Structures are given as structure tokens and as C-alpha cells.
Amino acid sequence: MTPQERVRLVDLVAGRVSKKRLAHTLRVETLAVRLARFWGVSQEKASVASLLHDIARDEPQSSLLELVKDTDDPLTREMAETSAPLVLHAPVGALIARRDFDVRDPEILRAIALHTTGAPHMDSLAMIVFLADYCESGRRFAGVGEVRSLLFSNLEAAMLRALSQTVAYLRQHSRAMDRHTVDATAAFARLAREDSQPLHSA
Ligand SMILES: [Fe+2]
Ligand SMILES: [Fe+2]
Questions:
Q1: Whole-number pLDDT of residue 119
Q2: What is the pLDDT of residue 34?
Q3: Ligand 2 center to residue 193 CA distance, Å?
Q4: For residue 21, how far is its CA from the centre of ligand 2 (angstroms)?
Q5: Distance in Å, CA 96 to ligand 2 centroid
Q6: Could you list the mean pLDDT of each consecutive 10-residue stretch along the chain, which spans 202 residues?
Q7: According to the model, what pLDDT value does residue 200 have?
Q8: What domains can be seen in the chain, in order of their start residue?
Q9: What local confidence, expressed as pLDDT, does residue 182 receive?
């Protein structure tokens, strides 16, 4: 993507989301590109996925559900049954990225689709976009510092921290939780336990 192509993409996104959302989106991109550079992931993919991650966020719930109904994408169909409808903007964002922005790269589409809930199997790009969304410089909630402190040492540990905090927050406020968030938290917790086990235990 040339700098001009990026500017064009930013303009197109600006036409579809609120000013506030655009500012958030650009902060997510800044952090995601930094993380991509650090972790040896494509900075271009991090940029495109970040710029498009909330493309459906300002769509009304009814039109999200409408788009979901017509899709043959398995992940989106699965997420359509969610108990937390807010998370739908993520898989629908991936649909819009493909339909209106001609994004064909499966890693970018998956990173967009999973940016709200996470999932048990995430590649580095998906973790980077999820964590950049969670930690961008405008975020100021309890616990964000702990996740930030892990970003450049262990992506999986940062994911576990962010997911655990999300689950705790949703429980505390009796808010609906999507199954993917629960499954992702369990998977990253398992991974952390395996990592802490000695290689040759007696
Ligand atoms: Fe989002
Ligand atoms: Fe976001």
C-alpha cells in the first residue's frame, strides 16, 4: 500500500464512521503498526486491518443483523447467534472490508472479525489488532497499564490479561458475554499453564 493508497483508505473510512471513531481508529493503527514492526508481522496488513476494524461500528443494529442474515461466511453466521449483539460489528466489519474495500487477505479479514471477542486460535496479526484496540493511547481504564506492559514481551500473556479483565468487567456489570470471549480466555489460560510447565517434568 503506497502512502497515497493509505490516505485514500483513511478518507473512505472517514466517510463511514464518526469523527470520534476515526480518531480511535487512527490510534489503533499507530499502535498496531508499532507492534507489527516489533513482532515481525506485516505492517501493511496491520495498517489495513486497523483502519477497517470498526468500519461497521456505527451501523445500526438492524442493518448489522440484515447483513449477517445474507452471508455465507461461517464465522459470521456463528456469531449471529451471539448473546452480546455489540460484538457483531466485528464479523460484519470483515464482510464490509471484503465487499466494499476488496480486502481478500484471510489474515486481515480474520483479525477484523475477531477484534472484539478474540478466539482460541489467533495468529500474531489478530492478536496485535485486538490488543491495539484494547490499549491504544486514548484508553484509560483500570488494568490497561498491565496489558500495555506485556505488549512488547509476550503477546499471548497480554491477550490473557486483556481477556480476563474483559470477562471480569462483563460479569461485574452483568453484561452479556459472547461465547468466543469465554473460549478465548480458557484457551489463552491453558497456553499460559503449558508455558509455565517445565519441559522435562518427572
Ligand atoms: Fe470494535
Ligand atoms: Fe475499536
A1: 95
A2: 98
A3: 29
A4: 8
A5: 15
A6: 95 96 98 98 98 95 83 79 82 94 96 96 97 97 96 98 96 92 96 80 53
A7: 63
A8: 3-196 (1.10.3210.10)
A9: 95
Residue 196, all three cell numbers: 509455565
Which ligand is in closest contact with the Cα of 134? 2
What is the whole-number distance in angstroms between the Cα of residue 133 and the centre of ligand 2? 5
Rounded to the nearest 5°, which phi and psi values hold at 150?
-100, -10
Q: Which ligand is nearest to the CA of 25?
A: 2
For residue 108, give the nearest of 37, 36, 159 by alpha carbon. Answer: 36
Q: How many angstroms is it from 74 CA to the middle of ligand 2?
A: 22
86, with CB counted inside 10 A (0-12, 13-18, 19+), is middle
**How many angstroms separate the CA atoms of 93 and 49, rounded?**
10
Q: 484457551: which residue's cell?
A: 187
